[in-house]
Design brief:
With about 100 residues, the chain is an all-beta fold. It contains no helices and 7 strands. Strands 1, 2, 3, 4 and 5 form a 5-stranded antiparallel beta sheet that branches. A two-stranded antiparallel ribbon has the order 6-7. Strand 2 and strand 3 form a beta hairpin. It is globular.
C-alpha cells in the first residue's frame, strides 16, 4: 500500500485554550467531511479539562472549538458517532477519575 502525504496543518497552534490534550475520536460526516474531538486542559484530571473539536472541510481543519465543559469537573474520553440519519452524537464522561 502506498500513502500520499498531504500538506501538514497543525491544529494545536500557540494560543490554544488547553495545555495538554489526548484521547481523540474521529467520525466521517454524511457530506464526507471529518469531525474530530478530544479532551484538553492544563493536565489530565484537572477541573479545567473540557471536550474540544474541529471540523475538516476539503484539506483544511477548523480552529479547535469547545464542545463540552464540566463546569469545574473534568471531562474525559470523548466518543463521536454519526448515526445513519446524519446526526452526530458525542459521548463522554464528566466527573472525578
Amino acid at each position: 500500500m502506498r500513502l500520499t502525504v498531504l500538506e501538514h496543518q497543525h491544529l494545536f497552534a500557540p494560543g490554544r485554550a488547553f495545555g495538554q490534550c489526548h484521547a481523540s475520536t474521529l467520525t466521517r460526516r454524511p457530506d464526507g467531511s471529518l469531525f474530530c474531538a478530544w479532551f484538553g486542559g492544563s493536565q489530565e484530571g484537572a477541573s479545567d479539562v473540557c471536550i474540544y473539536g474541529a471540523l475538516q472541510s476539503g484539506e483544511r481543519w477548523s480552529a479547535p472549538f469547545l464542545l463540552a465543559s464540566g463546569d469545574g469537573e473534568p471531562c474525559w474520553n470523548p466518543v463521536l458517532y454519526t448515526r445513519p440519519d446524519g446526526r452526530t452524537l458525542l459521548y463522554f464522561k464528566r466527573g472525578a477519575p
